[in-house]
Amino acid sequence: MRTGDGLAVMTALMLGAIVVPAHAATLQVVMENLEVSPAEVSARVGDTVEWINKDVFAHTATARNGDFDITMPPKKTVTSVLNKAGTVEYYCRYHPNMKAVLKITP
Ligand SMILES: [Cu+2]
């Protein structure tokens, strides 16, 4: 029995090492004065994005490929988790000149 228990613990530890992501980061994208900054940012699947709207009107982060569509009310921060890899161009539906790119690696 003891040997079996030890094996189970070993297996659990090994599985844990595989399942737990190396490091999930949080990155910030700021919308201010009708500009997105940074205009291009790299992230990984599992990372969290804090979408920060510093303007007094609403913005959106709308992916051209339909992967996400985030609405930020005035002076609010909205968070979302990236769950799909890809190079995603996005824009604001209310201000189409606001454009940026999110590069998400697996
Ligand atoms: Cu906008």
**Side-by-side strand order of the widest sheet:** 3-9-8-5-6
Order of helices and strands: HEEEEEEEEE
Tally of helical segments: 1
Which class of secondary structure composition applies to the elements? alpha+beta
Which cofactor or ligand species appear?
Answer: copper (II) ion
Q: Number of DSSP strands? A: 9
Mean pLDDT: 89
Helix content: 10-25%
Distance between the termini: 40 Å
Tell me the fraction of residues in β-strands, as a range: over 45%
Low-confidence spans: pLDDT under 50, at least 5 residues?
none
Largest sheet: 5 strands, mixed
* CA-atom Rg in angstroms: 19 Å
Envelope shape: elongated
Instruction: Classify the oligomer.
Output: single chain
